[in-house]
Amino acid sequence: MITAHLRKLRKRIEISSEEERAIRGLVSETRRCRPDELVVRAGEELNNSLMLLDGWLARCKDLPGGERQVTELHVAGDFADLHGFTLKRLDHDVVTMSECTIAVVPHDRLRELTNKHPRLGRVYWFATNIDAAIHREWALSLGQRSALSRMAHLFCELYVRLDVVGQASRGRYEFPLTQRELSECLGLTVVHANRTIQELRRRSLIELENRQLTILDRRGLEGVAQFDPTYLYLDKHVL
Questions:
Q1: Is 46 within 8 Å of 81 (Cβ atoms)?
Q2: Mean pLDDT across the stretch 18-29?
Q3: Rounded alpha-carbon distances, angstroms, from residue 54 to 71, 93, 120, 222
Q4: What does residue 30 show for φ and ψ, rounded to 5 degrees?
Q5: What's the DSSP call for residue 229?
Q6: Which domain holds residue 159?
Q7: 215 secondary structure, DSSP code
Q8: Strands (E), 123-195
Q9: SS3 of residue 208 by DSSP
Q10: Mean pLDDT for all residues in the chain
Q11: 54 CB contacts (<8 Å, ≥6 apart)?
């Protein structure tokens, strides 16, 4: 049930069988969600956090006029709102970008886990630090990278993150975002996002059709993006 989550953790940190049992015991129930469903509303009191088992989620903030900025994407294996355990409410919404399967983790179980298994407390602290690193990289993209580099960087990042949990291979992965949703990730208009996709295609770097993205030239795409995966902290850590 939480295979992707455990695979993501074990990419970076050794997890014992006892710790695995404790992590599996976090889940109280699972839910199926439709695309474009609001699963956490900004400001609402939280007693649970959500672990994404399958599908894509987005953290986003909206302006009064309806303009939306996606601040991070979550894929299978991610704790989408682990920080809600300490904050108790979020300053942003969490919405589904595709059909999703979500595990509900009550905060009282998280509290018990961190009390009984202090190292797992550090493991999940580490996980939220990686989320913060991804957020900083997105901020850099929005502020300093060109539209072409920005999009290429996102495609490279998603390939690495999906590969960790076994959902990307041979340069290919499912890509459920519409062009509007992609533009909201990148701070571009839909027209500009479409032109940028076409330029990446023209350079024979990617293909995007039938909700599947194929990286035709990974080295070339990483060059356009100036992609350095160091911020994803993929090496083994001792906590």
A1: yes
A2: 97
A3: 20, 19, 23, 26
A4: -120, 150
A5: G
A6: 138-232
A7: E
A8: 172-174
A9: strand
A10: 97
A11: 4, 76, 99, 100, 101
What is the torsion angle, in degrees rounded to the nearest 10, for the CA atoms of residue 219, residue 133, residue 69 and residue 85?
A: 140
- Burial (CB count within 10 angstroms: exposed 0-12, middle 13-18, buried 19+), residue 136: exposed
Kindly compute the dihedral angle of the four CA atoms of residues 218, 222, 223, 224, in this order, to the nearest 10 degrees: 110
Share of the chain above pLDDT 70, in %: 100
Residues 214 and 162 in one domain: yes
Sheet architecture: strand order including 172-174: 172-174, 212-215, 206-209
pLDDT in the model for residue 19: 97
Predicted confidence (pLDDT) per residue in 56-101, tens digit: 999 999 999 999 999 999 999 999 999 999 999 999 999 999 999 9
List alpha helices for 40-106, DSSP H: 84-87
CA 15 from centre of chain: 21
**What DSSP state is assigned to residue 178?**
-
Q: Indicate whether 38 and 110 sit together in one domain.
A: yes
On whether both 152 and 118 belong to a single domain, the answer is no
Domain boundary among 96, 131, 166: 131
Reading the block at residue 181, the tokens are 């949703």
Q: What is the mean pLDDT of the segment spanning 138-147?
A: 98
pLDDT at residue 1, rounded to an integer: 80
Distance CA(14)–CA(178), nearest Å, equals: 37
Domain annotation covers residue 175: yes
Structure tokens at 192: 């500009």
Closest CA to 138 of 124, 151, 125: 151
CA 85, CA 76: separation in Å to the nearest integer? 20
Whether 50 and 78 have beta carbons less than 8 Å apart is answered as no
Q: What pLDDT score was predicted for residue 51?
A: 97
Same domain, 88 and 183: no
